[in-house]
Design a protein that fits this description.
The protein is an alpha+beta fold and 497 residues long. The chain contains 14 helices and 20 strands. A hairpin with a 2-residue loop joins strand 16 and strand 17 (359-365). The protein is elongated. 28% of the residues are buried.
């Protein structure tokens, strides 16, 4: 039972512990190679600079970035077990508590480095207390405390008092741990609506409460969790309408989603593509080893009418300046059976109507669909059998990754964004892990009126498109806040005295 004031809770078992387990093959493949170590070092270097780069240099004139003192502490957060909890409070500031399992030498490094960093940034001195130190500032959060208890250091931050910090210290003294031991390698319980009250950049995502557990399973990682919504979901889980003659092998990726019409109707970005009635199912698949043969099919009551609606909406949205918007190369053409963008290099995006025994569909793709080569695998259809299934995704991640990477580079080029450098640390990491990534399966089911449960079994934990997005994010100039604008500092919220 989680405390009612919980905002976030994260537990990580630590690299040292995970690597000793028999099911650690997937973990070591991802994180222990020379390519992974290079990417890790680059990422931690960026994170060590982040507090100063994105916040302090605009707050405290002449403050040092303190990267040299912060950087070794981040290594410990990968190697060692740790536990983080954030709780709400009635005094206007949440309370944070971080407990890390460290030996005597590393604990001493944390004690001295954190004290020196805070004294540098605040121009105040820490006060020695039993087992550590604390600092009292003038602005919230005004109290920061560091103590060493047994094999753990506990770092707390809050307003006026630190009841969470005190609770964790008592538990470590009594039970030798800040929380009950678990088999999960990583677990998280995140109340995103509460988090957005304190971290404004998260507001754009509108995420529900999320629970996640990750553990090794043979040569795979197993991810399980839940999305918990504040209100019951209106998910019309109608019988699947699969375009069985249009989807065919050989494919290396297949996705099916249903019940999303109520959500889709509320999204502003969908207005240029809006058709009535709003589609409620979609099927996406990719043909084996052909990067630009990725397709999507949407069941509609009348495909000809849907093409007319979509063509009209797209024509109005693009206007006469559309050619200049994308290299001045493409031309939008529409009729009652097809919409096509002509002039793109390598691809010819289209939407066309398709009639099948299961109904009518809109079929979208980047290049023509190849001839049918056989029926869908029976096992794939069986995977869609659960009546509460909302989302299903299967892929051969190694093959899909080799397709998604050039697609993403092409998309970035069209968007006039920097492409991922093939010689970058993230690209070399993808090159290394790619061949090790096999079958990945993900399901999301509705298990309560306001609850979705997800499960994934994957050798890399992520699917191909997520790996590519992660690589681009890690290599972004402003990582970890690329694309975000920090909110204006409030007068009563500062790291200054």
């Amino acid at each position: 039972m989680q405390p009612p004031d919980l905002i976030a809770q994260i537990h990580f078992a630590g690299e040292e512990k995970i690597s000793r387990e028999t099911n650690s093959v997937a973990f070591t493949n991802l994180f222990s190679s020379p390519e992974a170590l290079e990417l890790r070092a680059q990422t931690l270097n960026k994170l060590a600079r982040a507090p100063y780069q994105f916040l302090l240099k605009r707050m405290t004139a002449g403050a040092s970035d303190e990267t040299a003192r912060l950087r070794p502490l981040l290594d410990d957060l990968l190697r060692s077990e740790w536990f983080l909890q954030i709780r709400d409070a009635t005094n206007g500031s949440p309370e944070f508590a971080l407990a890390v399992c460290l030996d005597k030498n590393r604990a001493e490094l944390w004690r001295t480095n954190l004290a020196n960093v805070l004294e540098s940034w605040t121009k105040l001195s820490v006060e020695k207390i039993r087992g550590g130190w604390q600092m009292k500032k003038h602005l919230p959060p005004d109290l920061i405390r560091f103590v060493r208890v047994g094999d753990w250091i506990v770092l707390g931050c809050g307003q006026d008092e630190l009841p969470l910090n005190d609770e964790i210290v008592r538990r470590v003294r009594a039970e030798k741990r800040p929380a009950a031991a678990k088999n999960d390698w990583l677990s998280a319980d995140l109340d995103w609506p509460r988090l957005t009250r304190w971290f404004a950049p998260l507001q754009k995502f509108d995420l529900p409460k999320t629970q996640l557990q990750v553990v090794g399973s043979g040569n795979n990682l197993r991810l399980n969790g839940k999305f918990i919504f504040p209100q019951p979901l209106d998910l019309p889980l109608e019988k699947w309408r699969i375009p069985i003659n249009t989807i065919h092998e050989p494919f290396d990726s297949f996705t099916a989603v249903r019940g999303f019409a109520p959500w889709l109707e509320k999204q502003k970005w969908v207005l240029p593509f809006k058709i009535e009635p709003t589609p409620d199912q979609v099927f996406i698949w990719a043909l084996d080893q052909i990067p630009f043969q990725t397709f999507a099919a949407v069941p509609v009551p009348d495909a000809t009418n849907a093409i007319r609606q979509l063509g009209s909406e797209l024509s109005a949205a693009t206007g006469t300046n559309f050619q200049n918007a994308v290299f001045g190369l493409c031309q939008l053409t529409t009729n009652d059976s097809e919409i096509r963008l002509r002039g793109f290099p390598f691809i010819s995006p289209f939407v066309q109507n398709v009639r099948e025994p299961t109904g009518e569909f809109l079929l979208a793709g980047l290049s023509p669909n190849s001839p049918d080569s056989g029926q869908l695998p029976p096992g794939l259809l069986a995977s869609l059998a659960p009546t509460n299934l909302v989302f299903y995704h299967w892929e051969i991640t190694a093959e899909r990754l080799s397709e998604v990477r050039p697609l993403s580079q092409f998309a970035l080029m069209l968007a006039q964004r920097n492409q991922l450098d093939g010689k970058s640390a993230a690209a070399k990491w993808l090159d290394h892990i790619g061949p090790t990534l096999g079958n990945t399966a993900t399901t999301i089911t509705q298990t309560a009126p306001n609850e979705l449960t997800f499960a994934r079994r994957a050798p890399g934990g992520l699917i191909a498109i997520e790996f590519v997005a992660l690589a681009n994010w890690l290599e972004s100039t402003n990582f970890p806040l690329d694309g975000f604008q920090l909110p204006a500092l409030q007068k009563n919220n500062s790291l200054r005295p």
